[in-house]
Amino acid sequence: MKILTNTMKTDTEAIEATFFALAERLRARPEPRHYYAVSYGLGTAVCANTGNRYAAAYHSFDSRAERDEYVSQGGDFRSSNDWRESLLASDRELKSELKHGGAITCRS
Q1: Where are the domains of the chain?
Q2: Which pairs count as long-range contacts for 42-45, CB under 8 Å and 24+ apart, including other chains?
């Protein structure tokens, strides 16, 4: 039992050291914030089965002002071609595109 206790203590110390090193790196280099928008090629049409957007193009911006300017240049109505709107980073389809390497246009 003594061997198991020493092993567990050593593992715990290693985990703590790794955790603190990672926390220190995160404090030193914060991730840049991104702002997202979507451009609908067919208006805000969605698939009846999945709820996914049709002809949606996702865009990433370095600042909120750039994103808002891009969104303001879109179509006039939600049903018009090139309707644009801002998205939260927590948007389900945006997260899926980012995770699976989808087409995200970076604008800066």
Answers
A1: 1-30, 35-107
A2: 42/81, 43/75, 43/77, 43/78, 43/79, 43/80, 43/81, 43/83, 44/78, 44/79, 44/83
pLDDT (tens digit, 9 = 90+) per residue, 53-108?
778 888 999 899 999 999 999 888 888 888 899 999 888 888 888 888 766 776 65
Q: What radius of gyration do the chain's Cα atoms show? A: 22
Which among 14, 85, 13 has a CA at the least distance from the CA of 44? 85
CA dihedral (75, 78, 81, 84) positive or negative = positive
Taking the whole predicted model, whether its pTM rises above 0.85 is answered as: no
Tell me if residue 79 falls in helix, strand or coil. coil
Task: Please give the Cα distance from 81 to 44 (Å, whole number).
Answer: 9
